[in-house]
Amino acid sequence: MSFKKSKSATERTLSTAEEQLKIVEVRKIIGPIADKFSALRSDASILRYLRARSYNTTKAAKMLKVTMKWRLEFKPEKIKWVDISQEAERGRLYKADYLDKQGRIVFVIRPGIQSTNTPIAQIKYLIYCLENAIWNLGSNQEQMVWLIDFQGWNTACLSMKVARDTAQILQAHYPERLGIAIFYNPPKVFESFWTMVKPFLEPKTHKKVIFVYPDNPRSCMVMEEHLDMDKLESYFGGKNIVGFNFEAYARKMKADESNMSGVYDSCCSSSPGLLDSKFRESVQSVTSPFVDEASSDQAICSNLEEMDGSTHGKMACSQH
């Protein structure tokens, strides 16, 4: 076991053998139900939750169970392009058609473009994009890069609810997925907003935020260090003047969705965070021959609550 010292904190690291022991311990804490989820039961997934909780197995197991319940309740795999295409149309958030220099998927976010949709619709689209990105991650890659362009941003664009919900979802249900977040040319007024948002972020998260200003050559080197300037959009100082093409983006996302749905329908274990079909059948067999999907999800959700020894989330489960 070793410790890496940084300027403001001490980060714990373990050997591969020690990590494996922790993974096994988390599975024991959660119990057999861990085997009934696909992506969440993998070593890589459990390890991300362990790292997010500084290798505390009890906290990591609790965090995983909360995500299992959330996935049963929110059903992110059920969100379809037709549900969120209107939010995607203006290019306020999209997955870039290039990777960073480490091979990580890049999200472009332009908060200065006003959304005409509700906070729920914005969050659904964010989750849709995250699920798609995870589906497309390379086998040796787990993290993503966020590029945030502040052109046109002002206090009228401010939404504490969306910011808070985004931070909660990312940290609670997609831990250790953020590689870096580059805030490009935020205005002076953003400092006040950042002060309000920062308390919602875990220290490990806000340490990954880098501020870049185009009039500061030194900070602009960050862009060249991480990204191919020939492919980077011009609004980030790159040479790509085409930018976001909604028609091409829609075709790509719908093609991905079709592939993802095919795997979901066959309950393949590589699909992101879905339930194993045999487990769903076993739940149905002990309840009623006429039980539907919502009822089996309720049974699983209740089981998770009993294991957790709490009633937290019971109301949410009963609503589906």
Automatic annotation (TrEMBL):
Origin superkingdom: Eukaryota
Kindly indicate where the leader peptide sits in this chain: none
Q: Name one GO molecular function term.
A: phosphatidylinositol transfer activity
Q: Where is coiled-coil annotated?
A: none
Record-linked Pfam families:
CRAL_TRIO, CRAL_TRIO_N
Domain (CRAL-TRIO) ranges: 81-244
What this protein is called in its record is CRAL-TRIO domain-containing protein
Q: Which organism is it from?
A: Phaseolus vulgaris (Kidney bean)
